[in-house]
Amino acid sequence: MIPQSSDIFEITLTEKAKAHLLETSRWTRFLAILTFIVIGIMMTGLLAVFATGSMAAVMSNGFSALGAVGAFLAMTLLVVLYWYPAYMLYRFSVSIKSGIVHNNQQMIEDGFRYEKNMYRFLGILTIILICMYLVIILSAVVSAL
Question: What's the predicted TM-score (pTM) here?
């Protein structure tokens, strides 16, 4: 008969681990809020440039071919790509802190789920960017031949 060993998968947080997580939650909250501020500045600048009609003068030749609306949509996509990881980081911070302070296991699990979602998003985005770089490099090599 094989002994049942369910204690291996039950993890308890020591006071030192809780202190590390609390400090991590403070820093991640700071970084998330800072990212939200930067996103706000980006959107304000983007709207100002779009409103003044000088988008073509600001953008490079590649974006000016798209026109002001195309460049605005491309920059909006970049803002959204910045926003999602920042939001997940903020939710991680709030959930971990709340879970530790109130000794709530569900909140801690939610916090780690938000962190997982953030890293999964960044991993997928990294894979997409690497593929785009490879396509660009291959097309440059082929066009040079």
Answer: 0.77
